[in-house]
Amino acid sequence: MSKLKIHKRYWLETYGCQMNVAESNALEAALIEAGMARAESVEEADCAILNTCSVRKTAENRIWGRIGFFKHLKERQELTLVITGCMAERIGDDFLQEAPAVDHVWGTNDKERIAALLTGGSDERDLAYTFTQSYYKEGEFSSYVPIMNGCDNFCTYCIVPYVRGREVSRSVDSILDEIAFLEDRGVKEITLLGQNVNSYDTHYNGSHFNFPDLLALIANRVDSIKWIRFESPHPKDFSFQLIDVIASERSIARHLHIPAQSGSTRVLEAMNRCYTREQYLALIGELRAKVPHLTLTTDVMVGFPSESEAEFRETLSLMEEVAFLEAFMYYFNPREGTAAASFSGQLSSAIKMGRLQELIDLQRSITKQYKEERCHGEVEVLVEQVSKRSAKELLGRTEHGEMVAFEPAQPLSIGEFTTVTLTGLVGNTYKGTHH
């Protein structure tokens, strides 16, 4: 067991998913509580922490680039470089051999202890993931609330179960306590987080308690929090009970992110997604039948090993049929340690890039048509910031995640709800008037 030197000023960079953002918020609060201060620039820090992502190779490439930057910085100043998060979990202590500029590698389960470690604690490792009391960042009006961690699905392309571990659900009391704390701080919107958020499963008051139970309980408890969101659900775990809760509780935002990944049943089976094209479309149909004014976003992958041109066309037709408001689109990139990395039928980069561009072009046309049809009427927005284009304009976000720029008719505060009339569209941002 060794001791680490005491650090005073930190620099924290976060990469990847919303869970990483939430965990960085908790880490930063712990660093400050331990007596450290946030550096105004990396040159003022005596410790730099990179909270990393391993989901895609592009994310890891960015980290390697940053490590190169810090290597040169350490030639000019004394600096401790810490790698944490999923990439640290995947590569482990091999980091220290591959990148001598890295001083410490602490994985996903070690994040809660980093503050103590940097202020003189031991470097003994934790084995189990633990939730913190709160993931709130001072001053924010929209907050992430992690409710579960890990994944038991083992999709053949995905590294998450290997770097996040198996599913662990946070206690109901801890979640409710944090939400009450957030309301006391004036938070207006929360997003419940989990790698597979709707597989949440625990016991509460002596009974089995699942995600729809939790969602209904939160919806009935909140007061000043107006919008409840959750990400990311798995289609196979999207039950009729969950649909009914969304339909009956108006505080649950009418905007859902439901990853499709492919429109081909054969490809979905090869991905180990555990649903068919028909089941996915039936789920979307049931949601739209029961939840008026619902908008949807999704994740879609092209170029999975052995994906044929016809199967790619099935994905395009699914995109047209569902008409998602937005989509996160990407091509298959083998992740070392996953089953699909060694599948036969690996496609060339040219084929994958060509299919991705065609998919992006299609989705852009769907999004453009939808937004042009929506350029009228009143919408409620949560004011997020002053526009970078004009100090006279504010930017607000609708329940459906759309940005609206408008000049306030009277003083408004960041984090306040207001009503705006849509008048036009510039790029992907609506223009509006305020009365």
- Helix/strand-derived category reads alpha/beta
Helix content: 25-40%
Q: In terms of per-residue confidence, which ranges show pLDDT below 50 for 5 or more consecutive residues?
A: none
CATH class of the largest domain: Alpha Beta
Q: How is the biggest beta sheet arranged?
A: 5 strands, parallel
Looking at CATH, the homologous superfamily of the largest domain is: tm_1862 like domain
How do the strands of the widest beta sheet line up side by side? 2-1-3-4-5
Overall pLDDT score: 94
Oligomerization status of the protein chains: single chain
Binned strand content:
15-25%
Number of strands: 20
Computed CA radius of gyration, to the nearest angstrom: 23 Å
Shape call: globular
For the terminal residues, how far apart are their CA atoms?
64 Å
In DSSP terms, counting alpha (H) and pi (I) runs of 4 or more, how many helices?
Answer: 13
The CATH topology of the largest domain: pyruvate-formate lyase- activating enzyme
Count of distinct structural domains: 3
CATH architecture of the largest domain: Alpha-Beta Horseshoe
